[in-house]
Write a structure and sequence with these properties.
seven-stranded mixed sheet; 3 domains; FAD/NAD(P)-binding domain; single chain; D-Amino Acid Oxidase, Chain A, domain 2; globular; 395 residues; alpha/beta; 12 helices; eight-stranded mixed sheet
């Protein structure tokens, strides 16, 4: 297939969200160009590599052993003093899923987009764009030099820093309190807790965040940390906290680091506006990362599907104005925004909560069968025992 003079849609960024957007649009027989500035999709890995089974069902992708490291049955949360709260599959929700090889997963989604008809180009970076008439003129840097392409609609899927969203006039400002600095090791020769993801909480452990352990096999796991930006005193704080945790924990101290990844993640509310004329922002670029967990794949892919549906409708109607794309705002917000707001408020509480109170929360929760008690009943029971906890945890 030769390139069209004007693409129906240019998707900038070939992470999971960009690829799903392009894949679904191509299935609707839209001409789609998906570009990725890096030479290899999915590299470097910048996440804990956990995804939920619900996410795969949502996008229509079957689990494949070629990119799955292990399957999870639940999650274990550790309080600052070491109390354990085990969450089974009926409660853990998104934490019941798979730990994957993220680079292979990302590449599979890009292949799905290509097989559906999208044109995928790596080592292709967007340099600038401007609106001219009824199309976007986008300057790209490619391996063959600079080129210009025309697109009726542009989708920003270029991550939480999203220069593309700023080009389109969206406000992407971010406070330091709404950022987490993260570093992760892949470690081999450690003790893992079977098919459970693990989360370690506490101000001394991970100020304003947590340490995670995502098993990838019998003795291998991703062990990482996220620290809230407002609580970082020195640039190396995340690494120093993670190294200390590993050295003091016999389960991990005997292990060997085989890979290191680092980066930032937003833990804020989503953008107040994710559309403009002939433009949509999706996933991390629209700040759709879960503010509490730092996970963004499910939310982003949900929005990607809504974006594809809306773009197809707008192109069919001939109205690709901001008004013509307004359905996208309604769709994704109805689906995920309320949960994001709730988790943002929880994140804000956890930044300030003391280790003593956090211990009380986890101790109190662990005494109840979470599969048989409602959230309201649980809060009432905790409040009866620890009134000061209820004051802090009431969202």
């Amino acid at each position: 297939m030769t390139d069209p003079e004007v693409w129906d849609c240019l998707v900038i960024g070939a992470g999971p969200v960009g690829s799903v957007t392009a894949w679904k649009l191509a299935e609707m027989e839209r001409s789609v160009l998906l570009i990725e500035k890096r030479p290899e999709i999915g590299v470097p890995v910048r996440c804990g590599e956990g995804i939920s089974k619900q996410m795969l069902d949502m996008v229509g992708l079957e689990a494949d052993p070629s990119w799955i490291s292990s399957e999870m049955d639940g999650a274990i949360i550790y309080s600052p003093s070491g109390l354990e709260l085990e969450l089974g599959p009926e409660i853990a929700g998104p934490e019941v899923g798979y730990v994957i090889r993220r680079e292979l997963f990302d590449q599979e989604l890009a292949r799905r987009a290509a097989r559906a008809g999208a044109k995928v180009r790596v080592r292709t970076e967007a340099l600038s764009m401007k609106r001219k008439g009824d199309v976007w003129i986008v300057n790209l840097r490619t391996m063959k030099g600079q080129v210009r392409v025309k697109a009726r609609i542009v989708v920003a899927a270029d991550g939480y820093e999203s220069q593309v969203s700023r080009w389109a006039g969206l406000d992407t400002s971010l406070s330091i309190r709404d950022m987490e600095s993260c570093i992760q090791y892949e470690m081999v020769g450690i003790d893992v807790r079977g098919r459970y993801t693990e989360f370690f909480l506490g101000k001394d452990i991970a100020p304003g965040g947590y340490i995670w352990c995502f098993p990838k096999g019998d003795d291998i796991a991703n062990v990482g940390i996220g620290i809230n930006g407002s609580l970082i005193k020195e640039k190396a704080d995340p690494k120093e906290h993670l190294d200390r945790f590993i050295s003091e924990n016999p389960r991990f101290s005997k292990g060997t680091i085989t890979e290191i990844n680092a980066g930032g993640v937003s833990v804020c509310l989503p953008l107040t506006k994710t559309i403009s004329e002939a433009f949509l922002s999706v996933g991390d670029a629209a700040r759709m990362i879960d503010p509490l967990t730092g996970g963004g794949v499910y939310n982003g892919c949900f929005a990607a599907i809504q974006a594809a549906i809306t773009i197809d409708e707008a192109l069919r109607s001939g109205d690709i104005s901001e008004k013509g794309l307004a359905a996208y705002e309604v769709r994704w917000r109805e689906g995920i925004e309320s949960e994001m707001i709730k988790n943002y408020l929880a994140k804000e509480k956890l930044i300030d909560i003391s280790d003593e109170v956090l211990d009380k929360v986890i101790e109190a929760i662990s005494e109840y069968d979470l599969s048989e008690i409602s959230t309201g009943e649980l809060l009432k029971a905790i409040g009866a025992r620890y009134p000061e906890v209820l004051e802090i945890t009431d969202l």
